[in-house]
Amino acid sequence: AGVDPRGFHPPLSPPAVAAALLVPLLLTLLSAAAAAPIALAAWRLHGEPSAAARTGMLWLLLPGPALMLPELDQAIAFPVAVALAALIVGAGTENRAGGWIAGISAGVAAAFALHLSYGAAAFLAVASFAAFAAAFDRTDPGQSLRGMRRAAAGALAVAALLFLLPALWGTSPIGAARTALSIHRAGFTAPRGYALWLLFNPVDFLLFLGPPVALAALFRAGTPPPTAAEGRFRRAFAIAAIALLASGVVRGEVGRIAIPLMPAALLALLPRPRVWGAMLVGGLLILLDGVLRLSWQLP
Question: Which of 34, 208, 220, 226 could pair with 255 as two cysteines, CB 3.0-4.6 Å apart?
Answer without folding.
Answer: 208
